[in-house]
């Protein structure tokens, strides 16, 4: 049987990684400067997500312009976050169109909204709204983590005050081995969790585990996912700094 | 976390806890303190969200920072600015934050009771009170109820105007005024917007450019390029009678005749400014003129929309600076 081995006796995974290696991460910020206040693109292995952030701005929705706007936002003295995600039909191997109100996508949007309502310093932007749009172009496992990382980067690019980056990573348990940052094949084969931390701290912003796993297995998975998150923070931070440097060099008076 | 063997990648970051001191920003409170100078500490150091700025409690925390205990952390990606004992982080990018005295260009989005709502690209719409505009008939004129009823005659939804920020409300929204003949409704021109962070503040934001074109360089990143027209003051009206002379024409919607060559010059300026935006070059009068001159090598204004052309213009402007 030519079925590929998830984890070979030599300690190699399907794509040749070791258990504790994350996939190649490529990210960029300020990619769509004309259409948004902040934008980012992130590729984690073959998962690719674009994020656009518009705001903070006058709340929209309801009437035209500012007047008839989102009443919730008007009364609230915190910022309103709205998250919309589009999963492209061509993002998976078998072409599948997801409707706009797909439950999984809706749930993901809500999760992201809750995470970032905590991470963004919303009290500084009363009576305003931040619109976050996500476009999943290609999925190879870890869609939620890539989306969270993309939103983080785009919010930083938009100059919105946040306590720290929110970085997310997955970890799975294969037999008794922890595997970090799963791809699609691995995700289908083992229980896994998605974790998001606030920057390089041990503060957990999200932990999502949808499958059954022994309680003794949980801790090593969490530990691995957390170190993965911290690694991602460094990659994203490096990109932001690189971008910042080039920007300063050009705009200096 | 306690596992012994880790890959290089993951290892590299786990050191962070120990190397916190390196991130710590050495700010010497005794350092030269010219009260007026906004000094960027240690050149152009970039801090990112969550980064420790200082653990010294003597500093005051300004915008772009938050504190946990005695330590101050950055909440945005930007550069550290210091005024006396106040530390703040200026974001690299972000929405326009209005300040009193800014010359801005805005668009009416809503006509309310005794006020207009104006989009100036900030977090919230600005407010232009009926009492803060010049109405036909002079400064001394009282505003009557009939003025309230015909507000849409003066300014209606979609109209562009330039104004000055008069005050800031506690929630950060701006209140505007147009109580000067250099402010008011805009016509005879072309609107474009660029990120407000690219605008370099100066004393004058209404520029007369070579080629018979005026540029209103709103600090909020909204720009208005128009045919150069004689202002009332230049037409020999005495300064004291200026306001009386200003009649209904300041609220006119009719464009004057604009010749094809002026139209082309306006388009050229617009594309030159877009080239500066593309190259993320700060925009001020000398740079706009330099970009315009650099653009003259393109005979056809349309060629300037190509990224290569934009890059070339931006590079030439930067080269001219040094």
Automatic annotation (TrEMBL), chain A:
Family (UniProt): Belongs to the RNase PH family.
Descriptive protein name: Ribosomal protein S5 domain 2-type protein
GO-annotated cellular components: ribosome
Keyword Ribosomal protein: yes
Taxonomic lineage of the native organism: Eukaryota, Fungi, Dikarya, Ascomycota, Saccharomycotina
UniProt entry keywords in alphabetical sequence: Ribonucleoprotein, Ribosomal protein
Domain Exoribonuclease phosphorolytic: start-end pairs: 21-161, 164-227
Pfam families (alphabetical): RNase_PH, RNase_PH_C
InterPro entries hit by this protein: ExoRNase_PH_dom1, ExoRNase_PH_dom2, ExoRNase_PH_dom2_sf, PNPase/RNase_PH_dom_sf, Ribosomal_Su5_D2-typ_SF, RNase_PH
Organism: Myxozyma melibiosi
From TrEMBL, chain B:
Ranges of Acidic residues composition bias in the record: 10-21
Domain (Exosome complex component N-terminal) ranges: 46-83
Domain K Homology: start-end pairs: 189-231
UniProt key word Cell division: no
Pfam family, one: S1_RRP4
Domain of life: Eukaryota
PANTHER family from the UniProt entry: EXOSOME COMPLEX COMPONENT RRP4, PNAS-3 RELATED
Family: Belongs to the RRP4 family.
The protein's name: Ribosomal RNA-processing protein 4
Organism of provenance: Myxozyma melibiosi
